[in-house]
Amino acid sequence: DFTDANLCSSNLTLADLTDAVLSRCNLSDADLSGATMSGATCSGSDFSNADLSDAQLRDADLSTAKLLGANFTDANLSRTALPPGSRVSR
Asked: Terminal CA-to-CA distance of the chain, rounded, Å?
């Protein structure tokens, strides 16, 4: 459980965060490239300018996360809950 964690600018490359609870976390500028976050709950978390390229986000809940400037290049967003009006392409 990473609730309220400050992981700003952390290197979490290839981390296994399957089904993790990441509520209200500061992950701005974090490197999550190649991370597995399938089924993770990320309500209220800040992913601003985070690198999520090649991340596995299947079934993750990002519906209330801040995603401004986040890089989702080649990420698996299958069945990922995204914020309303989000311009992240699947």
From this structure: 27
